[in-house]
Every structure is written in structure tokens, then in C-alpha cells.
Amino acid sequence: MSLTDNKSAGEELLLSRHSVRKYEPGVTIPEAELNEILELAASAPSSWNLQHWRFLVVTEQANKEKLLPIAYNQQQVVDASVVVIVLGDLQANEVAPKVYESATPQIRDMMLGQINGAYSNNPGLARDEAIRNGSLAAMQLMLAARAKGYDTVPMGGYNQAALIQELNIPDRYVPIMMLPIGKAQAPARATERLPLEDQVIRERF
Ligand SMILES: Cc1cc2nc3c(=O)[nH]c(=O)nc-3n(C[C@H](O)[C@H](O)[C@H](O)COP(=O)(O)O)c2cc1C
User: Fold this and answer.
1) For 16-185, which CATH class?
2) Which of 9, 78, 82, 89 has its CA 20 to 30 A from that of 102?
């Protein structure tokens, strides 16, 4: 059976996501719909449920235009309806008291102890966690947008220092990805994947 036969709605959704680089300019995503997309993205899993992602949402045309040189003139940042900068929280352990607010004191103390222990004992963990968990939300954001009939393209091609300066991003947050969302004006370039045997290691190396 080929991938095109008898696909479930979930499979269709996954396979219909492609990196679209040409968007219809001037399309507005209603705020309520955009919020639904962001809420769906935020249902992503995260380590200790710390929800390391933050969504910096750029919708004003003038602000999108400021992103153009930062994104090395990739036009999608101007023509897409919205550009979401997915950020990772480098101090996500500080969110733990709020996340575990309604837990029993015993569970809360145990979780906070575990989380703060991990964050203070492992150099590099905060950044790994921010990027790992933020990337899950970014993927989910692309699929949520697709489910609502929009297209996206994940982007790492931007000048990080310039982005941080332009949007006044605090040190606490690391930019993970730029994600334009909008209505496709032209279909994505077709891409293929490596054969499964090149991607899968079974049991162990
Ligand atoms: C982390 C990351 C960074 C990317 N950066 C860019 C980018 O800066 N510009 C761009 O046009 N595409 C970018 N892409 C899109 C990839 O080229 C695309 O995902 C890949 O070719 C597979 O195509 P598909 O997304 O249509 O399946 C990026 C993708 C990822 C995951």
C-alpha cells in the first residue's frame, strides 16, 4: 500500500504540511483563530510540564518588514499573515511553582526539588530543555496552523543577534525558530525523504 492510500485525517494532516515560501499578502488571521492555533500548539508535551516555549507574535506589517533584513531577505516574513518567533525559556524552573500550584504540598515540594536540582546541577541543561521543548511546540504550531487551513515554514535562517536586538528579547529567552503563518500563494517545493533504512537504527548501534 502506498502512502496515498486510505489515509486517516491525522495522516492527511501530517502529510499536507509543507514549507510554503510564497504567501498571499494582506491576509489577516482573525485574532480568535490565531489564539486557537497558539493554544493547540501549547498543548505540546514538555519536561516536567514546564512549557518552555514562548510565542512572540508579530502581525503588524511594519514590524514584519523589519524582520526582512534580519531573515536575510526571505520574503515570507513580510507576506505571511503572522510571524511567530518561537522562544525557549532558559529559566523554566522558575515557572515550576505556578505549574505545581494546585498539587499537594508533598508532590509540589518533590517536583520543585527535582526540577531545581536538575537546573542547578547540570550546565547546559537549561538550554537543551528550552530548545528541545520549544521545538515540540514549534512543530505542533505548524500542524495546528495546517489544521486551520494555513501554511507555515520553519525558519532558522536569520541573524539571531539582530533579531534579539530588534525585538528586545530578554536574555532569559533563546530564539528557536521563526515561523511565518499564512495562506499559500504558490505550493511548496516538493521534497523527499531519505529511505527509512537510512534513518532508523534498530535496537542499538
Ligand atoms: C530548523 C529549520 C530551519 C529551517 N530554516 C529555513 C529557512 O531559513 N528558510 C527556508 O526557506 N526554509 C527553512 N527550513 C525549511 C526546510 O528547508 C524544509 O523543512 C525541508 O526542506 C523539508 O521540506 P518540507 O518542510 O516542505 O517538508 C527550515 C527547516 C527547519 C526544520
Assistant:
1) alpha beta
2) 89
